[in-house]
Task: inverse folding
């Protein structure tokens, strides 16, 4: 299943979010995944704990954050959640991001690598990045993807 299909199935696209606390952004990204049964609440707390312990290693120069934790931290089914922030925010002491893709995988090896590779390929296109940042509603994101 593609990222687009997983996002739609989980109803996990949030656009125009105003938030300046990275921990609340991670919790916000996790909400639809918890509600739809893709992850346990423990998963997003593990993401927050990992960030506090290891730093925001998942934030890239392009303003993209791909927070995630290990499968055993509470992943039920492979999933993605997309949050488009109105303004970039710093994650921990790290870089700023305005595109946040919370990612959960049931397999610690292949699915995580495949998922991150798919995200990077998708967002490696400057035109798609610009369109996502200009998106005003859920349907805009679906059309872009």
Result:
């Amino acid at each position: 299943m593609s990222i687009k299909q997983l996002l739609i199935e989980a109803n996990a696209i949030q656009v125009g979010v105003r938030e300046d606390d990275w921990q609340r952004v991670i919790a916000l990204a996790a909400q639809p995944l918890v509600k739809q049964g893709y992850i346990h609440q423990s998963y997003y707390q593990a993401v927050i704990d990992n960030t506090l312990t290891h730093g925001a290693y998942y934030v890239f120069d392009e303003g993209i954050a791909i927070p995630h934790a290990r499968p055993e931290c509470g992943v039920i089914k492979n999933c993605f959640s997309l949050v488009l922030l109105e303004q970039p925010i710093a994650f921990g002491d790290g870089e700023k991001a305005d595109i946040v893709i919370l990612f959960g995988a049931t397999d610690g090896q292949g699915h995580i690598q495949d998922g991150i590779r798919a995200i990077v390929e998708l967002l490696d296109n400057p035109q798609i990045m610009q369109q996502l940042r200009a998106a005003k509603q859920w349907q805009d994101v679906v059309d872009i993807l």
Remarks:
- Helices lie at 3-9, 22-35, 41-54, 110-123, 126-134, 138-144.
